[in-house]
Design brief:
Blueprint (H helix, E strand, L loop, with lengths): L11 H17 L4 H15 L10
Helix pairs in contact: 1-2
């Protein structure tokens, strides 16, 4: 679905590019609802604050 050159090698910049692209795909409404919902869940997972063992996020 995304270009092969778009990947996440662990850098903050890669993660931001990936999330931005996913948000753009999500916003277009091109995907069937089930796939759009899954992209939304992926975006939420990628942008959620890290849980550093506190159980709060």
């Amino acid at each position: 679905m995304l270009p092969a050159r778009l990947g996440d090698l662990g850098t903050p910049e890669d993660a931001e590019r990936l999330v931005t692209t996913l948000r753009m795909v999500h916003a277009t409404g091109w995907l069937p609802e089930a796939e759009r919902a899954e992209v939304g869940r992926v975006i939420a997972a990628l942008t959620a604050p890290e849980d550093h063992g506190t159980g709060r996020g």
